[in-house]
């Protein structure tokens, strides 16, 4: 039956109207992956030399045992961002005499067909054969290889489970990302414990007790079973649909947004769209990770105050940039419905402004701990927060009227360039350059404080005149709405 499923997917692929474009994308992606895989192979072959140069005074085996767990922790983070869920169109099989276990088994097994599962084997096996095998024997070497494979399988199914749960409740993904971030910070920032020591505790003992390999093997088997049971319990559309319906409340039940009327309802619906779909959700999660962006610059004395303008704009407005550059492509699948609905485009734009205001406000609050580097840093963040709400939001919505490329929300975010065009390139120029065009003249005159005041005043003026800009954007939209709709209809 598995071969039948595979045959059906091949036929679906070749009969698709998008086959030519899909093949071209897959060929390009295949070349990129092969190049990346070549780098991984070279890295694995010379891993012993690399570790020897990085830790010249430490035993290679001890260092190696200490980095394995750290690698798999970061690999899990990468899987959550980049690894795609295996899919199968279940609907045609629901009315056929096909066993549920067969369908679920196919989905579970195809999850192993990922390049992420090859990387740890390619990276670690050469070191194991060159260092572990001669020093500790075949038993220890085999136990190490099996442990690496088992931990890779465990990570594979854990990432699949988290992402599937996140499809029903977007907060699951955010919580998982926060937990991984806290675990990492606990070691490398707060020094509460040592991940390297925990890794060596297991793999160091594995050198003399190969039977400990049963622990990662058992973890992999348990995670596979959990994933299998979850898939089996959510196979039918009726069950999946009912859970989705109960997981999200209607917009009118969100007190913060319901007071804004139709614009609040539209903003609430867009929040649901973001949390329910992979690519739009990635714009939000990546924004959370970029809250650490300031640590790159504020910890280095070589960077002057001018760079804080960019960093402040980037951290408080990253969602506007990431999500806004594809406006209105997020609504491409139902854009025709919006055109003929009774929704006023003024309310539609106000909903966008409200969404950006909420997320940017949260982002600004998350950057407040940077007060550690001085109150002036928080002041600059607040100034750029006002700039984002006033100027950048208006710029993003202006370029949205010139974006004619659709986005399929059902597709993943990794290596997905759907919807990317010249509009995104043009959008980046005013977003990055305009604040410096206001600030730098005063900076060169030796009056940086007046430059910051000019940035703040410009942002406030744009916020105060928001209704004026909405009317201008609405008039511009009506001259281009049919061209946008035509572009969104193209596959």
Automatic annotation (TrEMBL):
Key words of the record: Membrane, Transmembrane, Transmembrane helix
Transmembrane segments: 23-47, 59-82, 103-129, 135-158, 170-191, 211-231, 283-303, 309-332, 353-372, 378-400, 420-438, 450-469
InterPro entries cross-referenced by the UniProt entry: DUF5687 (IPR043742)
Top-rank taxon: Bacteria
The protein's name in its UniProt record: Uncharacterized protein
Phylogenetic lineage: Bacteria, Pseudomonadati, Bacteroidota, Sphingobacteriia, Sphingobacteriales
């Amino acid at each position: 039956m598995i071969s039948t499923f595979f045959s059906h997917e091949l036929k679906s692929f070749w009969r698709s109207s998008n086959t030519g474009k899909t093949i071209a994308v897959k060929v390009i992606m295949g070349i990129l992956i092969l190049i990346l895989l070549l780098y991984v192979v070279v890295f694995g072959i010379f891993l012993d030399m690399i570790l020897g140069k990085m830790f010249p005074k430490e035993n290679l085996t001890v260092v190696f045992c200490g980095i394995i767990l750290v690698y798999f922790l970061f690999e899990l983070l990468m899987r959550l961002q980049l690894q795609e869920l295996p899919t199968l169109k279940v609907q045609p099989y629901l009315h056929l005499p096909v066993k549920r276990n067969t369908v679920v088994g196919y989905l579970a097994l195809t999850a192993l067909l990922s390049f992420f599962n090859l990387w740890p084997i390619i990276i670690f096996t050469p070191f194991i054969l060159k260092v572990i095998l001669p020093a500790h024997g075949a038993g220890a070497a085999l136990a190490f290889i099996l442990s690496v494979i088992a931990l890779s399988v465990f990570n594979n199914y854990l990432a699949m489970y988290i992402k599937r749960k996140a499809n029903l409740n977007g907060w699951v993904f955010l919580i998982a990302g926060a937990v991984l971030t806290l675990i990492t910070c606990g070691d490398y920032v707060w020094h509460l414990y040592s991940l390297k020591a925990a890794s060596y505790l297991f793999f160091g003992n594995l050198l003399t007790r190969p039977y400990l390999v049963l622990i990662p093997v058992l973890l992999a088997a348990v995670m596979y079973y959990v994933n299998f049971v979850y898939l089996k319990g959510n196979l039918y559309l009726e069950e999946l649909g009912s859970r989705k319906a109960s997981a999200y409340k209607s917009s009118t039940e969100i007190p913060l947004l319901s007071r804004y009327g139709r614009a609040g309802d539209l903003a609430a619906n867009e929040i649901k769209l973001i949390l329910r779909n992979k690519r739009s959700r990635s714009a939000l999660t990546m924004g959370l990770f970029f809250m650490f962006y300031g640590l790159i610059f504020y910890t280095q004395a070589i960077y002057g105050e001018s760079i804080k303008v960019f960093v402040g704009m980037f951290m408080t407005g990253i969602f506007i940039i990431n999500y806004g550059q594809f406006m209105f492509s997020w609504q491409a699948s139902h854009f025709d419905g919006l055109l003929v609905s009774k929704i006023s485009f003024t309310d539609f734009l106000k909903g966008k402004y409200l969404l950006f205001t909420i997320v940017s406000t949260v982002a600004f609050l998350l950057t407040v701990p940077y007060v550690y580097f001085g109150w002036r840093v928080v002041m600059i963040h607040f100034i750029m927060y006002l700039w984002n709400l006033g100027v950048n939001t208006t710029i993003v919505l202006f370029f949205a009227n010139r974006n004619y490329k659709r986005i399929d929300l059902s597709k993943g975010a990794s290596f997905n360039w759907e919807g990317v065009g010249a509009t995104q390139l043009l959008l980046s120029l005013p977003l990055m350059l305009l604040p410096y065009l206001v600030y730098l003249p005063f900076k060169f005159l030796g009056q940086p404080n007046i430059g910051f005041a000019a940035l703040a005043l410009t942002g406030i003026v744009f916020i105060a005149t928001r209704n004026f800009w909405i009317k201008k954007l609405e008039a511009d939209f009506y001259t281009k709405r049919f061209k946008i709709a035509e572009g969104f209809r193209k596959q």
